[in-house]
Design a protein that fits this description.
- The protein has about 100 residues and is mainly alpha-helical.
- The chain has 2 domains: about 45 residues, Double Stranded RNA Binding Domain (2-Layer Sandwich), CATH 3.30.160.60; about 45 residues, no CATH class.
- It has 4 helices and 4 strands, in the order αββαββαα.
- The strands form 2 sheets. Strands 1-2 form a two-stranded antiparallel ribbon. Strands 3-4 form a two-stranded antiparallel ribbon.
- The radius of gyration is 18 Å and the shape is extended.
Length: about 100
């Protein structure tokens, strides 16, 4: 594999960990292991009350940003009248991040 395929050395390191199975970062609370430090940092919030990712329509807040769309789909697909509001709020969310 050519390392020149990766713009940053850290990206190559992450990629190599996929193939090696190495998980260099471990949760100090439950010992779960991760290949990437940023994933561990996001995971650590699951052990705390920190919920920095808030949904603008309701009071829902989440430890991980990727849960917002899941919440959106589960809450609002059942309510056909909110489709326009949902799209508008997704645009707001994308602008806020």
């Amino acid at each position: 594999m050519r390392s020149s395929c990766f713009a940053e050395k850290s990206k190559l390191t992450w990629h190599l960990r996929i193939h090696s199975g190495e998980k260099a970062y471990q949760c100090s609370v439950c010992n779960a292991s991760f290949a990437r430090k940023d994933v561990l940092e996001g995971y650590l919030r699951t052990h705390s009350t920190e919920r920095p990712f808030k949904w603008p329509i309701c009071e829902a807040a989440f430890a991980r940003k990727d849960v917002l769309p899941v919440h959106c789909i589960s809450e609002f697909t059942l309510q056909k009248n909110l489709t326009g509001a949902l799209n508008a709020n997704l645009r707001l969310l994308n602008r806020a991040t």
